[in-house]
Design a protein that fits this description.
The structure is a homodimer. By secondary structure, chain A is α/β, with parallel strands linked by helices. Chain A has three domains: about 45 residues, no CATH class; about 130 residues, Response regulator (Rossmann fold, 3-Layer(aba) Sandwich); about 130 residues, Response regulator (Rossmann fold), CATH 3.40.50.2300. In chain A, the strands form two sheets. Chain A has a six-stranded parallel beta sheet with strand order 2-1-3-4-5-11, with helices on both faces. In chain A, strands 7-6-8-9-10-12 form a six-stranded mixed beta sheet, with helices on both faces. Chain A binds a DNA duplex through α2 and α4.
DNA sequence: CTGAAAGCGCTTACAG
DNA sequence: CTGAAAGCGCTTACAG
């Protein structure tokens, strides 16, 4: 790999001049510049980003910490992040935590040491303290999907509205026993969906019906088991709301196996649609969240924070995207 | 952020001693070491990986270039890569190309400049030349899923066997008109699936039936349109093989809409299962590829290449994983 | 056992 | 308009 020095030697100038020519950081005589550019071409010189980063205190890299990728909304969000980052001249470093607090801690500790200029996180909630520390140590941080800290910018969907709207919608279809398949309440989106559901149920004068299982909640099996329990315990159940798409798939499958007709006997809604609902044999009504857009947006926010001078960092922004109810065959 | 210098000052020793103590790179008097460790703790010093990287010519980072994440086998593969990389002390940088040659070129060019020690790629095929250049310039490279270069290590599934086995299996069920939904032939896995299919058809004395659409091939819509065309043009069609899961979903949906019974009238197999087939209302028979394992394996291979001394790099290895036929309701 | 010095590849005041 | 020098935070021969 050619270095600045090689280019300088070939062009018969000092490295500093080459640097200035390449970065357009001050006027360089056109002839000199031409010579330099020719040398750059001949050696196919490419600047070493490590050295640039060390010198400038910038790495042009963003860390992304999410629970997992496969079959979750995070795959799409990550693609949005990657694309926006590339446009803005940043690379992204990915860590998946599998909801494990220790794995998350390790990732965060690694990222903070010069790896990245900023961290976008959908956290487990177990390391909030560490996240705050990192942020106040001068590394930009932004939350996506899961908002846990008030002083750190975030981009989320309106989970409470998802829960509320879905319940009201089902009630408008005549449903009276509406079960909820959700996840751990200490994680903001699950809490939000529940709050919305509860509010709607209260307004409608309908009973809250929910259940839980030991499976990891963001899974087909969780949806499958919860649906079976809901149906076992509530013979009159006429609707199921699933927090995420894969739970919805599990519920659909459970009903198929029990011979329960969807939507004739039980209607089904997913509260976090991301382009799966429309691909099914019985397509699934869902609240579609603009995942791709959310990823792009949170990236633009964090880059803005990274690039503003440290004496006037933007104050934390919290962006809430509405989800859109897309009615399909399952209701 | 505290630096080595801060620690050295606090411990009243030279920075070189601190470095040695921390890296166990030569004996340091226990008392001195204790003082240093205390200083490290007090300042909560963490080494700057950028500076380490610059000095040692190592980044401990691997670039991953894949077409996309959401709903493809690459999501799972990437998780496998990430996990194995973390265990081995590496971080991963992700680029998604969306099958766009230009985007891929940009990613590769960026990655080669000191960003990473190695690159794992599932390429578009349009930048093979560049990939070779990068490899011969001393950056480790490994191919995953798509093997395009003989001199660069690879980890793939046995796509030809997938096509062959699926066709034979369908024939054993009595199918005589077996249609194939595939993708562009210049991409190795699609080519391989076709070759296996063709071989089986020839041995069985059955006609080849296939079609194509203008949609991006790794998509629900592609599967949907191709299935409709196959059914339109071949009224006696009794089986469909889809190259990837989402195409299978599209085919399933098309048949549902036409009132074609699966598997009674038409049987359906996906040739690249990755944990979706089992989640469906009518579960889908598929050749399950061990995506997670493949990701882990390719990571171990590339790290081995990265860490071997440049005078005796391992010769290219090509690993082929078998896929397992998992029979479900769609056949 | 430890210090002083050089250097990884860059950028950026400081002179001239 | 351009060169010489310092320095980003580390590691590693080289002495002693």
């Amino acid at each position: 790999m050619a270095t600045l020095k090689d280019v300088a030697k070939l062009a018969c100038v000092d490295v500093s001049t080459v640097s200035r020519a390449l970065n357009n950081t001050s006027y360089v005589h056109p002839e000199t510049k031409a010579r330099i550019l020719a040398a750059v071409k001949e050696l196919s010189y490419q600047p070493n980003v490590l050295a640039q980063g060390l010198r400038q205190g910038k790495r042009h890299t963003i860390g992304v910490v999410v629970p997992r990728l496969h079959l979750t909304v995070f795959a799409e969000i990550t693609q949005g992040i990657e694309r926006a980052a590339r446009k803005l001249g940043y690379a992204i470093l990915i860590c998946t935590t599998e909801e494990d607090a220790k794995a998350e801690r390790e990732c965060l500790n690694r990222l903070r040491n010069g790896f990245v200029d900023g961290i976008i996180i959908a956290g487990t909630g177990a390391n909030n303290r560490l996240v705050r520390d990192i942020h106040s140590s001068g590394i930009a941080v932004a939350q996506v999907v899961r908002r846990q800290e008030r002083d750190i910018s975030s981009v989320v969907a309106d989970y409470e509205a998802c829960g509320y709207d879905a319940a009201k919608f089902l009630a408008s279809k005549g449903c009276r026993e509406i079960g909820l398949i959700n996840g751990p309440m200490h994680i903001a989106p699950y809490r939000g969906r529940y709050d919305g559901y509860r509010k709607a149920m209260a307004e409608l004068g309908l009973p809250e019906i929910s259940t839980t299982s030991l499976e990891a909640c963001n899974s087909f099996e969780y949806g499958y088991q919860c649906a079976n329990q809901l149906l076992d315990e509530n013979p009159e159940l006429d609707a199921i709301m699933a927090a995420v798409d894969v739970q919805g798939l599990g519920a659909m499958r459970a009903m198929k196996e029990r011979g329960v007709q969807v939507p004739e006997q039980v209607r089904l809604v997913s509260l976090t649609g991301h382009a799966v609902g429309s691909m099914l044999e019985t397509s699934m009504t869902s609240l579609e969240v603009p995942a791709y857009e959310m990823g792009e947006k949170v990236t633009r926010m964090i880059v803005e924070e990274i690039e503003s001078p440290s004496d006037r960092k933007p104050s934390p922004q919290h962006l809430v995207f509405p989800a859109a109810l897309v009615e399909r065959e399952s209701t």
